[in-house]
Amino acid sequence: MRLLLAGGGTGGHLFPAVALAQRLLETDPGSEVLFVGTQRGIEARTLPALGLPLRTVDIGGFVGKGWLKQLAVGPQLAKSIWQSLTIITGFKPDVVVGVGGYASGPALVAAKLKGLPVLIHEQNAWPGLTNRLLARWTDRICLSFSESDRAFHHGRTVLTGNPLRKGMDDCPPIPAAQPLLLVFGGSRGARAINDAMVETLAHLAPLKGKFEILHQTGTEDLERVRAGYREAGWNPDSAVPFIQDMAAAYARAHLVLCRAGATTIAELTACGRPSILVPYPYAAADHQTANAQALASKGAGLLLPQSDLNAELLGRMIGDLFHDRERLLSMAGAAFSVGKRGAADLILQECRAIIKKSGW
């Protein structure tokens, strides 16, 4: 299979696409993949390091911009569609998969103009604008959340889950060892969570020595957060800039404090880990709140809006959960029950189905 993956911009869009590409290359050695993204997105830094090929187009977003800037997007969009047509003509893909983000739109439009089979993968509980606009022209829409089906025309959707990095599908149950609180806000950290966690340490003093903390802060906040741990009498080495092996971190975790991006939600459910979810309030269409609500409604996590985030409340929530192992295990079971494992294989299966149906 020759697979073209279009989109990116953020890790939430890119990493599932990477997992999909790596799974195809692993299971079908004769296959080829190509990514289409932008120079400004995370894909421009990440894909070369992974040895995965990337071509870029010139396109930016227009949501939230003034009307003059929105008008300027028109010529840019036409140019990016032409660039996508050139890329597709050269690569000759069997199928084009859109994963959301600015570059997804032009590539999917170009693919339809070429008569190619097109599949969309939607990571969030509420779909992004690009996927909502292009859904009616796609051959298949693969969903990570059943809740997102309401935004699309019924009949072409299939619930597959979200492809995950290696090791997540093999996460063991919550261990019997000393409890670990895993804290992170994405690869670059989240200042609101970092600050709240430092302030919460004083409220967790009665539990000192009864559980460990592993806190991914991002590089910018690292020294400040470490100083806060040191001043509160906690181990400053609990704070690290980046966790390279997230699968191992989840395996040790009893409770996770984090944002509610689609990839994070997929990892929590694949690993079966209870969570306190603090959605990023400025995410497009507030999709992180929708993601968190989907998990909280099933008893798998607790939703804590950033507007309500304070040290006293967070300390009470963490303390209550660590004092109630039965509740932690119940939340873990609920999370695991809604997880979709083997998502990459399911999406590749759908790709092959629409290729066969189209006669390519």
Automatic annotation (TrEMBL):
It catalyses: di-trans,octa-cis-undecaprenyl diphospho-N-acetyl-alpha-D-muramoyl-L-alanyl-D-glutamyl-meso-2,6-diaminopimeloyl-D-alanyl-D-alanine + UDP-N-acetyl-alpha-D-glucosamine = di-trans,octa-cis-undecaprenyl diphospho-[N-acetyl-alpha-D-glucosaminyl-(1->4)]-N-acetyl-alpha-D-muramoyl-L-alanyl-D-glutamyl-meso-2,6-diaminopimeloyl-D-alanyl-D-alanine + UDP + H(+). It comes from the Bacteria. Residues 181-345 form the Glycosyl transferase family 28 C-terminal domain. It is found in: Cell membrane. Its main location: membrane. This is UDP-N-acetylglucosamine--N-acetylmuramyl-(pentapeptide) pyrophosphoryl-undecaprenol N-acetylglucosamine transferase. Its EC number is 2.4.1.227. Keywords: Cell cycle, Cell division, Cell membrane, Cell shape, Cell wall biogenesis/degradation, Glycosyltransferase, Membrane, Peptidoglycan synthesis, Transferase. Residues 4-141 form the Glycosyltransferase family 28 N-terminal domain. It is a peripheral membrane protein. InterPro entries: GlcNAc_MurG (IPR006009), Glyco_trans_28_C (IPR007235), GlycoTrans_28_N (IPR004276). CDD domains: GT28_MurG. Belongs to the glycosyltransferase 28 family. MurG subfamily.
